[in-house]
Protein: Aspartate aminotransferase
Amino acid sequence: MDLLAKRTQRLLGSVIDSSTSLVQRQRHDVIRFAVGSPAAEAIPTAIFDELAPKAFTADAFDYAATDGDRQLRAALLELLSRTSEATTGERLTITTGGMQGLDLFGKLFIEHGDLVVIESPTYTNCTATALSYGAELLEVSTDGDGMIIDELEAAVERAGRAPKAIYVIPTFQNPAGTTMSLERRLRLIGLARRWNSMIIDDDPYGMLRFQGQEIPNIRALADADPLVYAVRTFSKIIAPGLRVGWVDTDPEIHQWLINARQSMDTCTNLPNQRLVAAFLSAGYLDDHLQLQRERYRERKIAMQSALAEHFGSRASWTDPDGGFYLWVTLPGVDTQALFPVALTEGVAYIPGPAFSPSGRFPDALRLCFASMPPDRIREGIARLRRAVDQLP
Ligand code: PMP
Structure:
């Protein structure tokens, strides 16, 4: 359409979301490992019913403060003060989900042609946002310990210029499920300091650790140099439809976030902020998280043992300490060609190339173990094997 602004040529939409909406449209019984949503039974609807009269008072239908409702900000600061993510009000902005935090970063910081380093594979909804603001992306491979820092250093040297930002999902990465080691976090911070690059630390899953030791977060390790822009969300720990998240960053950036929001959406939906505030203030989150961690651990194990049973040495997969995803590699299998066959068999996943702007990982796929109960997981993996067997 020739009336569209030229910049829309860089507005590509999300490959992840188009695969998941194709899956949602399927009428027959499809076991869904594609969508990165919490289990339906993990959404605390009974508690929402109980809290609604307290949360939805008349003033909850007014405009909210741009950086967030006072009640939610207070409850969130209190919650974070009990974790390694303790922060202060001048650093905190409530956003409409994690995605808005990522989009605001692009709006405020990305100049046309700026270099943004990303993990490969990564969450490409973020890279789509960066591209829409004119970023040039530099993909750096990962392994079981996160981004390979030697490769990062070499890639930036080859590029011949410093990146504006380095985007990482350090904990229970989407899609790989892996966690960046402490040593790599420290080296990343050292390089960002040297290059004067910002670090975008995107962590929607960190509170869903079901095994292993917590690793100190990048903001605490960086200690204000380099600048860290931390993006967080309640989407995976309470419910994605609430669209409530937050950004924790330098107080000077906080003021710019407010300016940007005032010409964008004014504020995040206030009734939803009040519902989250009531959920936190009533003290429901700790038990809720404990339950989800146990649930997801059981589901991860069910998925791994079904993969071992049905694929054995024909496939390999990651072993996350938390979060939602397994990253599976099926050597010699084209997972994009497999996708329609798998849908016909009644199982859905996201093909590997959806997680790389340059279409790497043709023989990999992402499976979300969080949203299906163990018996459905076992059946889904059996279906996946049947689909693979049908490929020429
Ligand atoms: N970052 C990552 C790594 C994610 O996995 C997601 C959700 N899939 C988001 C950001 C976006 O979160 P939200 O749904 O709160 O916008």
Remarks:
- The longest strand covers residues 136-143.
- The first helix runs from residue 15 to 24.
